[in-house]
Amino acid sequence: MSMTLRIAIGSIVVGLVVLALKTLAWWLTGSVALMSDALESTVNVATAIAALIAIRVAAKPADRGHPYGHHKAEFFSAVLEGVMIIIAALLIMREAWHGLMAPRPIEAPMAGLMINGAAGALNAFWAWVLITRGRALKSPALKADGHHLLSDVWSSVGVIGGVLLAVATGWTVLDPILAGLVGLHILWQGWKVTAHSLSGLMDEAVEEKTLQQIRDIISDRATGAIEAHDLRTRHAGQVTFIDFHLVVDGQTTVDDAHAICDRIEQSLQAKLPEAQITIHVEPEHKAKHSGVLVI
């Protein structure tokens, strides 16, 4: 079982534990704000399951129907997660409105807040795991899940502070107001997750730092060629797709041109192990005198 898959399964377990703790906190206090926090955790569980399914699909090898692989499945999971976050935010805001119209007193606040705080601490730890490992494993699904959990942590901090203030002042109306603010925050996070994932589905190029590294490797390792132009990149999950035209002297043999391409591919894959590279070799009269010049 891959590391990505093990982490995805761990997210489901952590999500269920956090959901149970936050639901208990809500049951003890009757707080609308704590209810909104618990409701977001139901989304955490659902999206963790979606991420697990997407990661399993993305890991399938290329086949006749999908010659480039199934890597984009993780982006679909991240989009679904963003949409579900937005739906949860709207449900929270609806409950906040009902609570604002009929404020209720908060019962057993300290016990509920301590339990909610424990759930928030667990979420904070797991968000760190997801974001750091998601970056290392180049998994959009894990990174999206981690950023969602991180927004949940900040929501929990705000909820705990707000409920304490409502109890201290006796202003029960603060509880539904706080729930509404949590809903707005979650709505914004959902939009960001969705927008980022859609950019991946639209074949967005790699970030500028990675693109410059690719350019540098081509320039350094293409000795014997003249230039490389029409460099294009895109990413899908853990895979980076790179293609470009390599201009060589017209007298270069096929074997020599192939050796140059092999050297470039080996160096690129040493930096980007999952890279899939396509190089189109052209004679010197096709040079554009732009793009990547060979050192």
TrEMBL record:
NCBIfam families, per the entry: CDF (TIGR01297)
One annotated Gene Ontology cellular component of this protein: plasma membrane
Protein name per Swiss-Prot or TrEMBL: Protein p34
Domain Cation efflux protein cytoplasmic stretches: 207-284
GO biological process, one term: intracellular zinc ion homeostasis
Record family assignment: Belongs to the cation diffusion facilitator (CDF) transporter (TC 2.A.4) family.
A GO term, aspect molecular function: cadmium ion transmembrane transporter activity
Superkingdom of the organism of origin: Bacteria
Keywords recorded for this protein, A-Z: Cell membrane, Membrane, Transmembrane, Transmembrane helix, Transport
Organism: Paracoccus siganidrum
InterPro entries reported for this sequence: Cation_efflux, Cation_efflux_CTD, Cation_efflux_CTD_sf, Cation_efflux_TM, Cation_efflux_TMD_sf, CDF_Transporter
Parts of the chain that traverse the membrane: 7-29, 41-59, 75-93, 113-132, 153-174
Ranges where the Cation efflux protein transmembrane domain occurs: 11-202
Compartment list: Cell membrane
Bilayer topology annotation: Multi-pass membrane protein
